Task: structure prediction
Amino acid sequence: MESAGKELAETVQVGKGSFNRDDEVKTFFPKGLWGFLIYTLCLIAAAMMLPAQALDSGSKQFIFIVGALAIWRYSWGMTHFIRALLYKNVVFPKHRKLERAYAKELMPSKVYLLVTSFRIETDTSLAVFKSVIEEAIRCGVDCTIVPSIVEAADEKMVKTLFKQYNPPERVQLKIVRIPGTGKRDGLAQGFRAISRDMPPSDAVVAVVDGDSVLEDGLVSKTATFFKMMPDIGALTTDEECEVKGSKIIRQWHSLRFAQRQLLMSSMGLSKRVLTLTGRMSMFRGSIITDPDFIKQVEDDYLEHWRFGRLRFLTGDDKSSWYWVLKNGWSMLYVPDVQIYTVEHPPHKNFLKASTVLMRRWFGNMLRTNERALDIPPHTTGFFTWWCLLDQRMSMWTALSGPVFVTFLCIKYSIAFLAIYLVWIGFTRWVMSIMLLGARNEIHWSYPFLLYYNQIYGSLIKTYVFFRLDKQSWTRQKTKLSGKGTAMEQRMLNMSSLLLHSFALVVFVSLIGLISGVLKLPI
Result:
C-alpha cells in the first residue's frame, strides 16, 4: 500500500493537502485582517463626511422605514448567528463527546460509498477516488465502493487505482456503467446496485460527488451517528473548496462556504437542514434502498399551474432532501468534518459565472420550496418551516432598500444615497465580522460581495421564480426542452414576462406609496 501511495503521489497533482485547512499555518489574527481594517477606516471616514442635509427632517422617514426593515432582516440574521454558535460550541460538542465514548459500538456493520463521476478532470478524479479508497480501508468495517461511471477511461482508472491499493477483502469494488443522461440516472442506478446487494439493516450509504475529496476519517466521524440517533435519516458536513478561477470568484466561493457553515449550523440546532448537499451526504441504507426514494431522485417533478408537470433536470440533492423531510426523518449537520471540492466556474468572467451558478442554485431551491411549504410544520418543525417561508419573502425584502432610497432621493435629496451607502457599508461590515464564527478569515471584498449577493441574487431569484421551467446543467451542456409547440412555448415565455413585470410594478408601487413619492389617485 505504501508503494501504491508513493506512485499515486507522483501522478496526482490535486490532492487533499491542497484543500485541507489543517495544513495551513494557524495564526491568532484572521486571514485578510489588514485589508479589512483599511476598509473599516474608509467606512469611518465616509460616515464623517456625510453632508449636513443628510441629517434633516426628511431623514427621519428614511431611518424609520429602513430601520424597520433592518430590525426584521438583521434580527433574523442574528438569530441564525446565535443559533449557529450555540450548536457549534455547545450542542454538537456534547453529541461528539458521547459518540467518541462509544465509537466502536456505534459503527455500522457495512458502509457503501457511492461516487457519481462524469466529465471530471483526471487529476481531480484521481484525488477523489484516492480519498474514497483510503476511507474504505481506514473505516475498519465491510465497505463497498460503488462508482457510477459513464466513460470507459474512468472505469479503467478506478480499477487500476483500486488494484494498486490492494485493499483487504472486506473492501469491495462494484462499478456501475451508465449512459451520460444525467446525474439523476447515475444515482438511481447506483442505488439499485446497492439494493441488489441486500445491505444489512444498519448499513449506511455515503453519496459522494465526483469532485469531492473526503477528509481523513470521515466515515468513522459520521456513520456512528445513525446508531446513536435513531431518528436521523441523513446527515451532511461542512465544505471547503479549491476554485479554478480568478481571485474574485475564489473570494466569492470562500464567502459562500462561510455563510453555509453558519446557516447549516443554525439549522442543525433543529435537527433539520435546508439541503442535503450532493457533494457528500450520508443516508441510512433503508432510505437509499426504498423504491419510492429511488423514484423520487430519478424522476422528480412538480405540478405547476402554468407549466403543467415540470420535470426536474437538476437538484437531485433537493429531491433526496424533500423525501427525507416529508417522511418525518431528522437530519444532522456535522460541522467538525469537511469535504474538499474542486470548483470549476462555468465562465472566466465573474458576472457570467456567478449568474449561471445562481440561476441553477436558486432554481433548484424555488422549485422545491413550494411543495416543502405544503408539509405541515409539525413534520418539518416550525423553525424550518419559517425558514422555507423566508426564502420566498427575502428575495423581495432584500430589494426594498435600494428601491426605497431611490424614491427618497427623488422626493428629498440625493444626499440620501450617501446615507444609504454608509448604512450598507456598516451593516455588511457587521455581517463580515459575524462570518468569523465559521472561518478564521475575513476579506475587504466581503462587504461588497455580500451586497452583490443580496441585490443581484434577489434579482436572479425573482427572475427564476417566474421561469421555473428554465433549467440546465453547468457541467453537461443539456437543457430541459420546452413542452408543446413552438407557439405554446412562446406563450409560456410571454406569460412569464407579463407576470414578472406585473409583480415588479406592484412591488415598486408599494414602496413608492410608503415613501410618499407616489399617491393613490383618489
About this structure: The CA atoms of residues 268 and 333 lie 5 Å apart. Confidence is low (pLDDT under 50) at residues 1-25. The radius of gyration is 25 Å. The chain has 19 helices and eleven strands.
